[in-house]
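Notebook, p. 212. Picked up where the previous page left off. The plan for this session was modest: take the two constructs that came back from the sequencing core last week, fold each one, and keep the raw output in the notebook itself so nobody has to go hunting through shared drives later. Recording the first one now, exactly as returned: residue sequence, then the structure token string.
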Amino acid sequence: MAENMPVIVEGWAVAADRAGLWLVSGGDAWRTAAVPSDSGPHFELELELAAHGIDLDQVALMHSTSWRADGPCLIVTYMVVVKADDLVRGTWRDARPITLEAAGEVGRPRTHAADEPPEPSDFHVLMHGLRHLKFLLRHDATNAAAMGGLWRQHLEPFGPALAGMYSEPHRAA
């Protein structure tokens, strides 16, 4: 009999300053070990953030945006909006800028049949999460207030993309 699929949590820690949007976690998300059965994804992400020096009072919001199977694990994705008092790189030296132009450089994910799951890259997951934050800015007053004006300004260029990402017809191999 097969074992159960463990749940892993990934947190894309992002921040905004007057210069733009930043991936606080550097080049990738932070990922937890398997979530214990007496815990939960949100709490395990809080522990992971603490392990990377981010206290909960530095977090404006934590919002789960998606999930996907990845090998033997189920990954639950969170966007973590981290507060920035001034320039992000003044606090997080490893932070990397996030630009919409990079989406064009990475390209589209592989097409898939209508009854198959998509296989997005980690970058596509991050872009989806940012677009999800933009949706929250427009439709969720509590989260919009938590993010503030810089987020509204920097997310403005991010338009809906899911339909366009899969506009090419799938051709079976």
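Okay, moving on. Second construct, recorded in the same format:
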Amino acid sequence: MTQTLRALPAIQARLPTTRSTVGVLVGDLLVLFAFVTTGQYAHNYYFWEAPLHTVFILIPFVIAWLVVAPLFGLFSQKVLGSITQLLPRVVGAWIVASLVGGAIRATPLFPGGAPLTFLLANVAFGLLFFVSWRLIVAVLYQRL
């Protein structure tokens, strides 16, 4: 019990607990939505024609991001304001989250499967979205 109580501040420090970090999390989820819908659009699927399908495509990656991003310290005030700390963490977090999300998507519960080509494209293009977004966040944090 005592160890659990001692670990609590360390866990809380990794979670989005302030207005600004919750805002970053909301931005992350919007970036993830933009990423998925852009991918759908590139394959001639439109999220407004099948919104439930889009939700089922999003769920595995939302779950993965919500677990992985705090583990990589992506909501830490110190990391949010430092491009040199942020970049490797975002890259690592997205690679792990993409693979975990792909593993979840590969189950019969979700559509689409997760072939290797999908995973590679998901990692590469997801990095473009997340790195761009988190660079904007870092610059804003440095200015504020």
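Notes on construct two before I forget. The radius of gyration is 16 Å.
Flagging for discussion at group meeting.
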